[in-house]
Amino acid sequence: MTFHATTARQAMGSFDLGLLIRSRRHARRPRMTQAALGALIGYSESWVCRVEKGDLVPPWDTVARIADVLGIAPMELMKAAHPPERSVTRVEATGDPRAFPAATVTTAVSGDREDGTVRRRQFLAGAVGISAATVSGTPTEAAARRLVTADPSSALEAALFQPPGAAPVSLALLGPALRAARGDFRRARYAKLGAGLPGLLATAEVTRDTLAGRDRETASGMVARAYSLACELAIKTRSGTAWVAADRALTAARVSGQAAPLGEAARVLAVTMRQAGRAHAALEVLSDACRTLADLDEPQAQGTRAALLLTAAYTAAQTGDRGGALDLAGEAAEAGGRLAYGSEADHFTLQATPEQCAAFHISIFNALGTPDDGVGYARRIDPAVFPTAERRARFWTDTARMWHQIGRPQQTYAALRAIEQQAPEEARRPSVRALTADLVYAPVSLPGLREYAVRTGAIHG
Q1: Which of 48, 125, 164, 318 is most buried, by CB atoms within 10 Å?
Q2: Taking residues 238-252, what's their average pLDDT?
Q3: What pairs with residue 157 in β-bridges?
Q4: Secondary structure letter of residue 456 according to DSSP
Q5: What does the DSSP assignment read for 100-127?
Q6: What is the pLDDT of residues 220-235, one digit of tens each?
Q7: Across the chain, which distance is largest between two alpha carbons, in Å?
Q8: For residue 302, how many C-alpha atoms fall within 13 Å in the half-sphere facing its CB?
Q9: Does the record carry Translocase as a key word (predicted)?
Q10: What angle do CA 170, 173, 179 make, to 5 degrees?
């Protein structure tokens, strides 16, 4: 069936999101497939199919990515995704929902549900108040209430493009604030982390700018690590801000002259590149960073190098290089085995412990299309050995993908439930929601699955 411009106009007039996406996809030359669109935005072919059929309405950040890929004006696509009868009465904005400054919104919401644009603007309006507690101490009661519904993607945009005013602090205060933020990531408290990032990044930068000499280099390393953490969060939420955060992390790391922050920044940049389909280029970035770190004796530098090797192993698997991926995984295990993480552990979001290296084999085999090879690893690993909720959830996510590829829905669902038990916010990540939605529409009935999918945002109730 061929879709013409008139069909697209009819789609816009009737607020049919699926028809609008399908018509623009078909209008591409050569015609873009559902699988190709899904790959570009981080979802499966079946997920795109369900959006086009009207079974799913994507979240705002995904709508923005679809608009960018298909060349649709974002406001036009947002209008199709959230028609007037389901959302706001009137939105007067700059024309691009991502350009959120200077917008006036009048709401008339049916029931208790607000349009995503309205929620996003309300959150941004309070972001400065929330983030002020990052360095100064405990959040206010009002800030704590807002954390419950905070959108990490919106918070990242606020942190990067609308930073609050901040005053410099001592390095003795900035260090613990950075460790606390990394702790939120390790505990998979992404809404809290996102809410605190604007204040942390602004404070780190203004502190650095008031210093000179060795203190300035130390502060630059902290700025780099804060932006690397922001990039980690952007990667989790599939936010386009990952590129900005990675670039700022690299810039600050180079000024710091410290190898470990530079390696961390290189790793998050490589993951960002890999998600954009540039795995070979990502491998070059990782290889260069590993060479830089190889001859350094500092525990942080070697811990970073070991994490880089694990990331490189998974990246090589995504290029189809089985031998290279397994060799890199083995090298990571060897490098990690020489480290005693101990007190250094809080410096890392990824550690090349023996258990973590073993778990990475599951994701490597998933990427290679041979998930059966990962079953033995999955069955002999005790998730309790992983030091953080984020890493335990990552193990269960890889295990869920493994069972899903093999065609074992019961085991897939069990792993998905384990993700939610370990880290509820991980279960709401875009890639995990897509996997959940795939399972919902599979030809199998699993008690409680649909309720789980609604609860985690994979489908609408």
Answers
A1: 48
A2: 93
A3: none
A4: T
A5: -SS-EEE---STT---HHHHHHHHHHTH
A6: 999 999 999 999 999 9
A7: 66
A8: 17
A9: no
A10: 135
